Amino acid sequence: MDLNLLAALDALLAEGSVTGAAQRLHLSPPAVSRSLARLRRATGDPLLVRVGRDLVPTPEADRLRERVHAVHVAAQELLGPRGAVDEATLDATFAVRTGHAAAAALGPALLAAIRPRAPRVRLRLVGEGDESVAALRDGAVDLDVGAASDSDDSGELHREVLRHDRMVLVGRHDGALARRDAVTPEALAEVGHVNATRRGRRRGPLDDALATRGLARDVVATVPDLVAAFALVRAADLVTLAPRWVTDVVGGADLVTWEVPLDLPPLVIEQSWHPRTDTDPARRWLRDRVREVVALR
Asked: Do 190 and 212 have their domain in common?
């Protein structure tokens, strides 16, 4: 069945005229006449019959009029371009994958941006693990938010840079680094460090920068996330590196931050998603909210 015939029948029944239907459909009258002939063969009914100079609907056409229009509208909604989201009626649960500390920083602000506008939306913050593309591909996760990953997804994901940030040093306000006269590369080599890395790496850009000066960190502990790193900073008088946008929110009054006295690469905060959800209005709306929240940090 050619679904274009549905549009033609809807226009013919609404206009009662081949010329009027042609104008509505942006087609030529002969093209609409051919569609009417096909519709007559398909339905077994003349649908519109000529009375004088006018076309008059048959009883069968009158019976079909409202149903045809309703089906045509439904088909347009199903197959047409996606429109704007009705926030008041949006009923969805979104899964956002991010780090534990980033969840603590992002979660409250994101909920505050969502709840007044879309009270039926639920947010599920998923901790980072294997960070596989498969979870985005199969819909288990709607969105990844965090530092740009160097993992190879072969270009499968869409990525959007949300902001550029920098790494800062975090330590106790009364700790070993706070007692130094100045935060220098030499001071960093003399205090204990906790390394926050979900991949278990002991070295990073700070180690490379110190090495150019013949210095090295004393990495006392390696933990999978910043929440654990902050706990060890407090308990064991260590220092750690953390993104500025996270420490501003979840660092705590007993912790202080210092600028790193070395040149480190900038930190890129991004959101990434699978192309299968790129045009979905609800998930596009979610990405808009994440963009607003992270940009304000």
From this structure: yes
